[in-house]
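TPR-like protein: structure tokens wanted.
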Amino acid sequence: MDPDSGFLDQFAFEDEDVQSSAREKRMEEAFMKSKDAYKNEFKYITSQWYLEQHSSATQSGPLNVDFTINHLFASRRYNEALALTKAQLDIPHKRGESFEANERELLDIGLRCCLECQDKDSALELAERSRSKWKQVPTLALTASKAFLLTGRPRDALSAALEASQYRSLPIYIATVGESLRACAAGPAVCAKTADALNLMADTFSALNRSRNPLFPSLGSRTYEIDTSVPTIHEKKQAPSQEQAMQWCEAGKVEGRDRMIIVELLSKTYQEEKAEDTLRGFRDL
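Answer:
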């Protein structure tokens, strides 16, 4: 190495300006090439895209299938919606929270389809499958009760309606309890004594229903009917005691959990009536 040459002379540096201009030239060429290759296109999603992609049951796209089922139901194509619902329910899924929620929704809309198209066999199948979910989903229990009434199973309809009413005694639930009791009383093999007890309980539930005015009566009247021929409990103070309710259930051959819920509902009403008639002291207010 020449001692007179500088230390940096041993490195051959390229001119930075040359490198920069070459890079800019490549970028400009790439940009012009992309402009030539670009086509004017508009991407859009149709309003029924899920129908095009998932027209049958699938394990990979359950959300799209749900969209399709709801679309068919809203379009009043109940038979198609029911067929797709049953196919989706029959697909093996991994058990989990998301599956349970999806199964509840499918059972509910499937039962509603059965009620609309009067498919008794499918209604009975789906109603039986929904039994384990009645406590968590009272609306599903209510729909199952309607399905059991359709298939001529009033005792099962009563059980479903009572499960829906136990902790949520809304007018529509109580009305279905009364409807189920009357259907039980109208059975072909029911004796007169049993029918009288069942009708008496149905009248009492109708009176209970009239004493609890719904929040929106104009909307509620579209979904259930209240028997206005029966006076309200508040008008005649006819709410039964716990002993009376037990006697009615025994005469009506209502047993097990159904009897417990009926006695609880009616005796709760009795306790409310009794509390209203009792004068309370200042400390109890």
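Confidence is low (pLDDT under 50) at residues 214-224, 231-237, 273-285. Residues 19 and 243 are 100 Å apart (CA to CA).

Cheers.
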